[in-house]
Each structure stands twice: as C-alpha cells, then as structure tokens.
Amino acid sequence: MYNAPVNRTRTSIRALQVIMIGLCLIVLGRVFYLQIIQYETYANLGEENSIRQQYVSPARGLIYDRSGVLIVDNEPIFTITITPANFNRASIPLLADLLDVADSVVTKRVDEAQRYSWYRTSPLLTDVDFQTFSLIQENIWQLSGIGHQIESKRHYPTAMKGSHIFGYLREADRSEYEATNEIRLGDKIGKSGLELVYEEELRGDLGIEFLKVNALGQSLGNYDGERSGRNPAQGDNIITTIDSELQTYAEELMQGKSGAVVAMDPHTGEILALVSSPHYDVNRLAGRLDRDYWVDINTDSTRPLYNRAISSRQPPGSTFKPLMGMIGLHLGLVTPSTTITNTGGYRRGRLYKDIAPRGEYNLEKAIAFSSNTYFYSLMDKISSSGQLNVWSDLVNDFGLGVPNSIDLPSANQGIVPDSAFMDRWFGKRKWGLGDLINLGIGQGILSVSPLQIAQMTSSIANGGYKIKPHLVSSVQKYDGSVQYASTLKEPIEWVKPEYLETVKKGMRRVVEEGSGRFYAKTDLIQIAGKTGTAQNPHGYSHGWFTSFSPYDDPKIVITVFLENAGFASTSAAPIAALLHEKYNNRTVERNWVYNYVMNWVPKEDNSQAE
Amino acid sequence: MTNPREFNWSVLFTWLCLTLIGLTAIYSATQGPVSEFLPTYIQSNFYKQLGFVILGMILMIGIQFITPRTFLELSFVAYFVGIILMILTLFFGSEINGAKSWFRIGPFGFQSSEFMKIATILAVASYLTSRRNISAENIRYALISVVLIAIPTGLVIAQNDFGTAIIFLALIPVMLFWSGLPYGVSLFIISPAIILYLTVLNWQLGVVSVILLAGAIFFIQRRTWLTVTSFFTGILTVLGVQLALSKVLQPHQIARITAFTNPTYDPTGAGWNVIQAKTAIGSGGLSGKGFMEGTQTQLKFLPEQWTDFVYCVIGEEFGFVGAGLVILLFMFLLIRMLNIAGNHKHPFAQLVTVSVASVYFIHFFINVGSATALLPVIGIPLPFISYGGSAYLTNTIMLAICLNMDFHKRQFSIYR
C-alpha cells in the first residue's frame, strides 16, 4: 500500500497544502469578520479607548456692587498632583524641599495616592501658593509623574467682608449632585447667602472637552477628531444693590458688637448695606476647607453664621410706635390733635409704667418722647373693640409678620398675633386684654427682624408705599443680555398723607428733642428716627434705632439693632447717625462720634422705654 | 554551473516583502509617537532589527554558495552543538520575559532554542533519510525520531519557553507523517490537539469532533483498534478538559485559558490583551488608519506590539488591505515551498523543506490566531515580521537552506 513513494509524496503535499490553505483562509475570514463586518464596533471601541471625555468647570459669575465695583471674583488655586505610575520615589526629598514640607508628609501622600490608583492622577497638595507652584514648575523636568491642576476659588477684592450677604460655597452633597447633570462630585456650590439664592445663575454651564489619552491614562492634549466638545459658559454676573463703601463702613462700626444693620433705599427696597455681627471670614471658607475654622464658627456661642439682620426675632419695642399711631388715626380712635395725659403710667387692671415726663401728649409728641401711656391706651381701644385682627392686618401691610421676599435664605417672618394666633399660643379663651396692651408699645408677643423694621420705616419714609427689599438689581447674562430683578412699589391704601406727616414729624422730633438728640442731632444731615428697646429675659435689653434721612426727601433708611446694648439712644443711634452722614455726604466729619462708637461698651439698662 | 534562472526568485521576493512589512510595522510600533512611552532600549529595536535584516540578507546570499550536501553532513554536528548550547543556556543564560532562553557572548546575545530549530530539522531529516526504505511506519525509527525532537523540546520547557516548545512538538507529526507514518495514525496523533481546542470552545463541539475524527481515522486506515483507541483517547481528552475547567484549575487560570473566547470576563486582566488586539485589528477597517496613525498602537494599548502583537499594528494602520496581504504572502510562500519539496528528488531536501514550511505555518497560525482571538494568547513571533534577531536570522537561514537545495537540486543527487 505504501510502496509508491512518488504517489505518497504527491498525496502528502496535497494534504498539507489543503490543511494550510484551509487554515489560512479561516484566519483570513476571521480578519475579514473583524475588520469589515465588525468594523463599526471596534472603531468605536478604539475611539472610546483613546478619548476621555472631561468636564470643564465654568468660571463662576462675578458679583458687583451698585456702582459697578467688583466685590466677588475668582482666584486660581494651584493643586500639585501625582500620577504614581510615573513617579520616581527617589525624588521625594526634592519634592518635599520644594513644597517646604517634611519628607514624611510627601511619602504619606504618595502612599495614599498609590493605594487609590496606580495610574490615575490624584491631588498631592492642594491650594499651594503661587511661589511654591512656580518652584515646582521650574523643576518639573526632574519630577516625573508630578503635575498640577488649576481650580478657582472665590476671592473678595475689596475691604468689604459681606459674609452674610455673599454666603459661602462648599462641596455639593450626594443628593445635590445626583439631582442634576450640571453638578459633579467635588463641585462647590453656594450653601448660603447670594451664592445659594443665585446658584443657578452664578454657576454657568459645564463645558465638555475630549482629550486624547494613552493606555496609562496620561492625557496627551486635545483630541482633534470628529467629536466636538462644548465650551463652558461662564456664570452670569450679578449686580447687587449694595453700596460697598457704606457696607464696609457699617461693618467697621459693628466690629466687636453683636447685632445688625440694615440700610435700604426707601423708594425701591434696594438694600444698601446689610451687616450681621459677629460675622465669619468668607475668605477662610473659600479655598481648601479649613476644618478647624469650620468647626469653630459652627460651635461658637456667639453664632457668627446666624444672620441677625434677617433671621433674628425680637420685639420691636418703641420703634413700633409710629405705625401704631397711624393705625390709631386710620381707625378713628384718635386725631392728630387728640391728647392723652400721662400720669406716670396707664392703669387698666394694673399699672403699665411710663417713664416719659408726665403731661399731655398728642400723637406727634407721644412719638417724640416715646410716651407709653398714649399707645397703651390706643391698643386698649383696639382690643376692647374687638379689632385685634384688623390691627394685625394693618401691621402686616408694613411688612411685619408676613414672609419677606428678600433674596437671601432664612429670612424670618416674625410674629404679629391675631386672634387665631393667640388661640394657638395661649389656648382658646385663655388670653385677654392683659396680653394685648403691651403690643401697643411693641412688646409682648410681637417679634420682627431688623430687615422688617427697615421695611416698615421705608414705607413711612417713602410716603406709604409697600416695597420689596432686595439685594440684586440685575443679572448680566454671559451673552450680554440683562435681566432685572422684579421690584414692587404699591401704595398702602389706607395710609393718608396726614398720618405720615404726623408720625414723621414725631420721628424728626425724636432726633431734635427726644432720645435721639445726643448723637443723631447734627446740622450736617437731617435725620428722623425712633429708638426702641427689646426686652430680653436673658440679660441686657437689646437696643433698636430705626431712621431715615434727609427728613424732607428721604433717600436712605437705616435700622440698627444691637444685642444687650442697653440705651439705644447712646448705642444704636450713633451708629445709624454716622451711616446717614456717610451715605448722604460720602464723608464723616464727626470724628468724636466715630471714636465714641468704636470705643463703646454695652451698659446695663432695664427701663422699658426711652 | 547553476543557472540563476533556476533560482526561486518568487520565494525570495515574498521573503523580502514580509521583511519590509515587518520593518515598517516595527518602525511604527517603536519609533512612532508611541516611542514617548517606551523605554530607550525598546525604541532602538527598529535599528537593531534593521541590522539583523542586513545580516540576514548577507546570509541569504552567502548560503546560496554552499554545496547542499554540507547541510546533510553537518546536521548531527549542528544538533549536538545546539544541545550543548541549550544546556549551557539553561545554566548560564539570562532571563527575558520569564524565559531563560538567552545565551550571551560578550555584547551579543541569542536564543539558542531558535538555532536549535534548524539543527533539529536537519538532524531528524538526516536520520529519517539516512538509509533507503527507512520509514516512520517502523515503530523503532519513529521512536528515535520522536526522541531526537523530544530532547530539545524538554530543554525548551526547562527554559520556561512554552511557545517554542509547541513548535518543536508540532514537528513530530509533520516529520513522521512525511516519512511514511500512515495518514490515519498521523491524524490520530494530532487529534487530541483539535479536540482540546474545540472542547475549550464548547464541550459538545468536542464530543462531535471526537466522533468525526474517529470516523475519519476508520475511513482512512480501516483498522478497528486504532479507531477505538482514538475514540477513547478523544473522550478522555474531553473529560480531562472538562474536569480541569470545573475542578482542578483556579478561576484565574481558567480566565487565562478562556480569555480568547470571553475577554470581557476579566477586561483589565487576562482579557486585556485580547480586547486590545481585537480592537486594534477591527478598528483598522478596510484601509487602516494610516502609517503611525493607529491609536491602539501609538497610545500603547497593545502589549508587545513589536513582537507578539505586531500583526495588530499592521491590521490597525493598514487595515484589511495590509492584514490580508500578509496572509496572502504567507499562503503563497507556503504553497511555493511545498511545491519545491514536491519537485525535489532528494528525500532529505523534501523533508527539510516541508518541515521548514510547517514551522513557518505554525508560527503564523498561532501568532495571527492569538492576535485575532481565534486561539488563546501564546507568545510566539510572526516569521520575518516580528522584532527579534535570533528568530529572524533562524527563519532566514532556514529559508536560505531550502532555496539553496532547490537551486542546486541538479547537483544534490540521491546517489553519492
């Protein structure tokens, strides 16, 4: 059978050729399948492999004051990064030297980065200063695997602190970054103040860029293929109503004190200054999270994070009297000439004390010298005639006891009781006249914020118009278009010019002859105002002074609230007076008042009225 | 003396084409933009290879002036020298990529196992054709042949170079088959490899192949005992593979074996090479991404892209046109070589040429099969194309010997 080697050779060659050609064709078919039939699949895979989609953070919008002064912008923060796979541990000493930290610190961070990922880039040291950053860049050739990242943080170029206006940014919570595609893990978003309220506008739109990367995950610059990225859209700029000069001055005057200042344009509701003291340093919350500082301000017993200007709830005290007078006039209980005699107090079941000089008081004089008897009597008449709810509605018209629409978070509504509230508070039929008479002088179950007092004063100063307090006048879009904030100016129907005439005169006399005369009376500027004391069961009384100027044509309303201040006339009033001078004249001549304010310390005082 | 017209220029031309394709691919894989991520000793691979190619051309020409009988006469000397070199390598060699197969003399290093391929082919061919009527059908001759191949195979395994061991093992059925081993027995010898492969793909496929192969063996040989033996050997192979995959091997070992069929099981580990290789070839499309433009190649997604995965570079950058051309060139080379063998009168020349063609084919099939995920990843170079001096020179010398014997076939008489 095998004796024919020639045949066998021929057969064997054919067999081998068939096997080899067969297998070669299988391989060829396989290559055809991969390259022609499956081309789309692998072309995509190949592209996915070599392209990394990366988000580019937009620049956050800027914040300006009312005259165009830049008050919040962005500043680069430099982060030194490391890619462990490319890093040579022998360069640790050099790196530590350049960063000016101990070798062990760098070693520890390198180890952490290695544990996280061998190929991915991790931050080594964040928020290094520019000098250090430059030093690293100069020596980058001997530091393989070391890179940098430039991010930005909020920067506050003026002397103005504004912590309670601006608010701070912090990294988004899980729920926040999961709710939208626009926020990613690690992104900082506004958590309070304007940064929170205008987060959407300020944030801008994320950009997308495609980078070429190699198998080690190293970025090799921009990808120039078909996929086009998207440029980030810068956040909108915000034009605030803040007068940064006045604000800075108010902050200075409030230094070391506990309380709030609100300055407002009475015609528009634009907030010119808003200070809550003590404050915190927004600068220290801007960059790398300073954990110690964060814990400090959160646990500080003086509550620096608490915005007293819009959130505190205090009885308005005598600052409430002008409004009370107008209500009396409106309800026909008194006329401007009606007089009530102060005999040292108002007797109704018990004696309600009045420390104003004894004598006859018409409304104007009752405001000027803050006689309690007049207003006890008014409130008595209102309550006795069952008009508590009418009173409550009229008070609401001046912005007290109703939600405030200011563009800051956590503004307090305060309390202006009506019968339903009293029922809830004391229980049905468990309250009576005795709980209401105090309301007439702004005490009892009445609570307001400094902002609301400023709003009330504005409505008096502007001729009886409701206004809407606000901090932002317009939003400048990135494309140049401008969106103006909605404002409000509608007349309060029941307020007649003669009512205003009377109470404004009274308020003017407060400064001329009454409790305001010590510091607020000056030829430089005509101020009208009203002091007040908020009774404080826990210690010294809180002092109020609310005011407007110039008297003839009011341009600014300033409300000062000082905690544990004692006499408002010698604590809150001088601060307001200086601010009136500053705003109207752009300069302060009365240095002795300034020095007085700066050296002022609170005094004990327990009297109910001044 | 010898008419230059009788020289087989087409084979020489094919060899030259493959060599140039190889140089192009190696240039792209080591000197392209990717060089940025490569250590300098790898960047210089292109220039080293260029040197080897020049040396190879000199050898190719020089060898044509040797009398063909010299190869026959020197075969056993070469074999013993080779064995000694391999043993020396085992003790004094240096290790690269886990295989201790490098023997160094001064600044030069070479893989003794590569040269052993020539020596083994020559020695076994010489033995099997030393007397007339010698046939592998005779169990004694067959066994001696197997032993002659098994010795270098064992040494290669001792050097931890399994890829090369497969080449040596594959010589056994080829050389025995050529030397008269009955076809059925030859098929029986290679059947476990086929069954093994198909069982890894799918065990039902393995069982079907057992039945088909046993049937084929019976049809060719008509010997009951051989058929029965082959059937049970086949069944045992299927059971053994199943047992290994389900009980004996650890999951990571199984992952490595089956990565070529299911690379996404461990995409960053065992499956990485397979995924990246397929992606490189597949994304090349019809005409490729262009010389030094392949993202898989230039961004370092391909492992060992100048040697084991060089085919992916060609596939990615030159597309189906380039990758198909390589396959066609190999097909042409193999068919021509088998024709040369068939036209030769001297059994030594026949056997050497067939063996050399088979070695090329197995290298080609395993290398391209690995790159296209037809086979598990087995690291062996693509002849004439992959970087590697020892392999390139060995392959070139083998081809030169075959061309020489063909060129001088009139003087290379069967009769002394």
Secondary structure elements and their pairing?
The complex is a heterodimer of chains A (610) and B (416).
Chain A: H1 5-37, H2 39-50, E1 51-56, E2 63-64, E3 70-82, H3 92-99, H4 103-116, E4 122-128, H5 130-138, E5 146-155, H6 163-166, E6 169-171, H7 174-179, E7 188-190, H8 193-197, H9 199-203, E8 207-213, E9 219-222, E10 237-240, H10 244-253, E11 259-264, E12 271-277, H11 291-299, H12 308-311, H13 321-330, E13 340-342, E14 345-348, E15 350-353, E16 359-361, H14 363-368, H15 372-384, H16 388-396, H17 419-426, H18 450-461, E17 465-467, E18 472-476, E19 482-484, E20 489-491, H19 497-512, E21 528-534, E22 542-549, E23 556-562, H20 568-585, H21 591-598
Chain B: H1 9-31, H2 40-43, H3 45-63, H4 69-92, E1 94-96, E2 99-105, E3 108-111, H5 112-128, H6 139-158, H7 162-178, H8 183-201, H9 203-221, H10 224-248, H11 251-258, H12 272-282, H13 295-298, H14 310-343, H15 347-371, H16 389-407
Antiparallel strand pairs in B: 1-2, 2-3
Helix pairs in contact in B: 1-3, 1-14, 3-16, 4-5, 4-6, 5-6, 5-7, 5-15, 5-16, 6-7, 7-8, 7-15, 8-9, 8-10, 9-10, 12-14, 14-15, 15-16
